[in-house]
Amino acid sequence: MTAELELRDVVVSFNGFRATDGVSMSIEQGELRFLIGPNGAGKTTLIDVITGLTPVTEGDVLFRGESLVGVPSHKIVQKGIGRSFQTPTVFQALTVLDNLDLAASFKMSTLKLFRKRRGISAAVADTMEQIGLTDSAHRVAGALSHGQKQWLEIGMLLVQQPRMILLDEPVAGMSPQERAATGELLQRLAGDHTIVVIEHDMAFLRSYAEKVTVLHEGKILLEGTVDQVQGNPLVQEVYLGRARDARSGHVASTESGEAAQAPDAQEVLS
Amino acid sequence: MTTTKNEYPDVSSLVDEKPPGEGVVAEADVTRDGYHPSLSDRLKTGWGRRIILAIAVGVLIAGPDLIGDPTRTRQWAEYLCYATVAVGLDLAWGYGGMLALGQGVFFGLGAYSMGMYLSLEQVEPGQLPQFMSLYGDNDKLPLLWRPFEHLWFAGVAAVVVPALVAGLVGWLVFHRRIRGAYFALLTQATALVFWLLLIGQLKLTAGTNGLTNFSEVFGHNKYDPSTPEFLYYLAAGALLVALVVARHTVNSRYGKLLVATRDGEDRVQFLGYDPAKAKTIAFALAAGMAGLAGALSAPIIGIVAPDQFAVLPSILMIGWVAVGGRATIYGPMIGALLVGVLKTRVSESHPENWQYFQGLLFIVVVGFFPGGLAGIWRKLSGAVSARLPARGGSADEPSRAPQTLATSEVAS
Predict the structure, then answer these.
(1) Tens-place pLDDT, residues A90-110
(2) Of A107, B111, B132, B332, which has fewest CB within 10 angstroms of its CB?
(3) What distance in Å separates residue B361's CA from the closest CA in chain A?
(4) How many Cβ atoms from other residues are within 10 Å of residue A249's Cβ?
């Protein structure tokens, strides 16, 4: 059986600096996989490589047995891989409805795009309901709160019904309630979708992660369950060990809503 | 998103790709949405819109009678051509964020297409336009000129050739992710190259003198007092077509995609769209409209010469859009008409000073009214509507300032 996603010795080097240094991993269909690691471990780079934003220097990326190397980003999305970014990037000048509708229309031919939207498609209406923005349908996205923008972005992902979803710190800056809702959503989506999440928040990880891959300096340090990862002395040394002192400060720093802007390292340690 | 910036120099700060008024407007719209519809919003919907459209079309049709003077009518026909260019250019610049500084090239391609037809209309079949016998040793019509014996061909080529050229340039340029200031400079360079080409190809283009002496235009005598009116209606028709196409484009899903591409080109890719394709289409549409306007400008202005399509006129076209207001449907049209009228009137009364006046106008608009006339109108209509009773279910809701709205929601 071919894995949903397979990385083979992926090396990405920026002017000699190896952001990822021979990463091989395989993710099965329906998995909910968490990627963790200290700042600069190469987590975001991996997502960038999978989605075609950053070219691989060496190695191969296979999605359902098909290589993604050299495929432009928009075609990778068409194959069924969706992603989010660290900071929510919705289209500020468009309404919530238009943002979702545009996302939902991504398989339309250019000629069809020239037609005006008439009414709201069921998929868009459902998604709007799911992310709780039905009342804000006709507001421009630029006027939403940070959390709402994050939900809108997640909605734009879901409405495309991707096979695989890559999320880069989806709960950064969210309130505890929003975090819980996101976590539950992820668990609900796993199974039908394959999900890869980069997340620094250990509490979130403990609550929702099944399988965790730890990256360190561009290499895979360990792969296993949350308990295995937390109990591993190597991981504690490079990562969790440094976090122990700061753990008490966790609630304060993540709830303040400023985590998105905070430097990576501080989030890791929280 | 920072990773993309490692690969490509980020020049967005050099060229502001977003219309300056946009952010403010968007927030203001939100406040109105459900709370307090502004006058301009009310005019956009239902009967308000129909009445405004009817008045506009009525004024356009009654134009020559209102103007009353054939010379002035001819001048207005010229402004209408400029307005058509501006409407197209706004698709590329206002909605698509592409600062195209070489729109004169496409205007010129249209003008030369029609200019060639008109030159041949002046001579008997089989004869050569006068300049050819002056500069050339050819006794036969050059191959390039031959299809332009037919009006239909000249008309189609005037629109299709600019659109194809823009499509090709756009495709190459946007797929290489050339954008912002680099794109602006590149388009400006095309205007320079085009100008040099026109001057260099003396035997084909009559060089700096250009194509002129069109005493017969589409079967009408140039000196017949009814001819300006005829040309006026042609130009008005072209403008209407451009407006309808632009309106439809902006309101379609593609229009939303274009705005999305302007505001987040990298993000659009991860929605599964090819931003280069989206931009190329808008650039080609803009070029087609410029070509159409150029074709009509040939008989209206009566001369087709390289200096009309050089770097400077191309930059002025951006000025029309800026004065009228970026990313609005009617703003650029009004901007072009206004600058056209002012140019004529100021040049008549103070022939020396038009350039200074024009420079001042652009500085004032860019410096103090970045939203252009449309921005001023929005502000005024917002102020007026604040005094009008609110409509719908919002009667009890006090009008709130956008900032208050935004912060209160973040806090809640």
Answers:
(1) 999 999 999 999 999 999 888
(2) A107
(3) 28
(4) 12
Interchain proximity B3–A160, CB inside 8 Å: no
Whole-angstrom Cα distance, residue B13 to residue B214? 47
For chain A positions 92-111, those within 8 Å of chain B (CB to CB) are: 92-94, 98, 101-103, 105-108, 110
Across A152-163, average pLDDT: 92
Looking at chain A, which residue has its C-alpha nearest residue B18? A93
What pLDDT, on the 0 to 100 scale, is given for residue A85? 83
Tell me: pLDDT of B32 over 60: no
Give the chain B residue nearest A110 (alpha carbons).
Answer: B254
| Residue B38: pLDDT over 80 | no
Domains in chain A, ordered, with CATH?
5-82+163-269 (3.40.50.300)
More confident call, A5 vs A231: A5
**β-pairing, A32-36 with A211-216?**
parallel
Distance of CA A145 to the CA centre of its chain: 20
Query: Nearest CA to CA, how far is B295 from chain A (Å)?
Result: 26
Separation CA B409–CA B402 (nearest Å):
11
What ipTM did this prediction achieve? 0.82
| Cβ pair B260:A102 closer than 8 A | yes
Tell whether A127 is within 8 A of chain B (Cβ): no
What structural domains does chain B harbor?
71-359 (1.10.3470)
